[in-house]
Amino acid sequence: MKRSLSPTGRWLLVGLSLSGLIISIMWRYIAAGFEADGSRISIVIVVLFAIGLLYSFLIAFRVSGERRRLEQLADQRRPEKEGGGIHVVFQEALHLVEQGDEVDFQGLMASYQERFMGSVRGVSVLSGVLITVGLLGTVVGLIITVSGISGVLNAVGQDYDMVVQGMNQTVEGMGSAFYTTFFGGLLGGVFLRILHIENYRSVTALLADCEQLAVRWIMPLSQRAARLTSGELDKTLADVGRMLTQFSDEVGAVSGSVAEGRAAIERQLQSVFVDARESFAKLMASELAELADGIRAMGHLLVEQQEPLRASLEEAQRSMGELVANQTERLSAGMASVANAVEEGQVPLRASLEEAQRSVGELVANQTERLSAGMASLANAVEEGQVPLRASLEEAQRSMAELVSRQLVELSTGLQGIVDTVEAGKAPLGAELEQLSSLVQASVERVEATVALAQRVNEEQRGQQTRELAERLQQAAALLRDISNIELKGDSSTGADGEAA
What is the C-alpha end-to-end distance of the chain, expressed in Å? Predict the structure, then answer.
């Protein structure tokens, strides 16, 4: 990487060698050109050449400084933060390596290379400008030559001095044309072009050395970091794979525990539901049996209470029939005696008739009073017979209402307990509960309808309707027993539904 001459030394060597060669060979032409160029374009060319020469020297000096920094980096392998230039490029590359990113050194060198190449192209541009100015001097010299020739032609045969002046102008124009082209080609096309080539070679050599150092220093670091990153990535992926496997095993274990817990909950809920339904069915059957027994006892009580009333009524009817028959016979006898008296004599007819009328009136009054008394006694007997009947019926209604209300409370409590248990376990028993609730509700409605019917029977107080009430209550009891039997038979299907859920 270290070279025998720095870019500045090489530039000075090339520049001095070329200057000595040009001066030794073409000095007289150069001196004559300055004297012969009346347009002073040669001075402009020399000034521009001096600017290009200084610019090219600055480029060489800058390249020399960058080369010293590069040699320092090659020795120390530690870029300086405030070093500038090539230090910035390598510092950025090392920063990318430390971050574990891929280093594109060509991309990092692109802007750095562009700055140097732009400066070198500036020297080439100045070289072309010098050649162009020389050509412009040629055109200006030709214009001066043409003007002198025109003056000579106009002064021929008239003014000798004007002819001489025109000839001098023509020669001066030709000198300007030739010497400006000479200076432009020599200084721009030869001298600055050679210096441009030297600058370009120095810059390309510097960039090549930078890439060589990057290949020997930065790229191994980047590859090592990439291998480390790849190894860490593989290790991380392996750890992640193990974690995922462990997590999958834990998820499987949790899923198994959840399935077992769900099965246990379903079995427990099924057992609770079956026990609740069995106890509820037994309770309903026993209570309905008690209700039917009470209803039958009430029917027997009603029948027993009606028998004395019926006997009393029949006795009253027989007494009233006998009384009416006796009185009818007595009335017939009286009428017969009246008829006999009339037939025997008409004298005491009025008295006998009046007597008969009084006796008949008294008899009718007495019999009417006796009939009223009998009816009153019959009414009293009926009232006395109805009081126990009404009391018994009211007592039966109260007992039946208390029994029904107690059974409804127990039924609601049992249903609420089953609903709470099902909600706690989230078991799919809603359909069974709804079916059971609908059946029980229908039974309750039938019982309530039966109670209302019993109340109507109480209001109407008819024995036939009371017996019909007893029969309907017995039918309701039989219906509720059938419902409880149906619920007990549905336990097996309910268990199957619970397991399916």
Answer: 84
Q: Report the percentage of the chain scoring pLDDT > 70.
A: 48
Assess whether 72 and 198 both reside in one domain: yes
What predicted TM-score, i.e. pTM, was given to this entire model? Answer: 0.43
- Residue 37 shares a structural domain with residue 106: yes
CB 242 within 8 A of CB 103: no
| Local mean pLDDT, 10-residue blocks, the chain (501 residues) | 74 88 80 75 90 92 86 72 67 70 70 84 91 90 84 73 80 84 89 91 86 76 66 69 75 77 79 72 69 67 61 61 59 56 48 53 53 49 48 54 56 54 48 53 57 55 57 65 55 40 23
Please, is 122 exposed, middle or buried when counting C-beta atoms within 10 Å of its C-beta (0-12, 13-18, 19+)?
middle
CB of 342 closer than 8 Å to CB of 374 = no
Q: DSSP label at 347?
A: T
Asked whether residue 388 falls in the same domain as residue 467, the answer is: yes
For 435, the enclosing helix (H) or strand (E) is helix 430-460
Residue among 340, 69, 357, 314 nearest 213 (CA): 69
Rounded Cα distance between 122 and 101, Å, is 36
Give the pair of three-digit tokens for residue 25. 């060979």
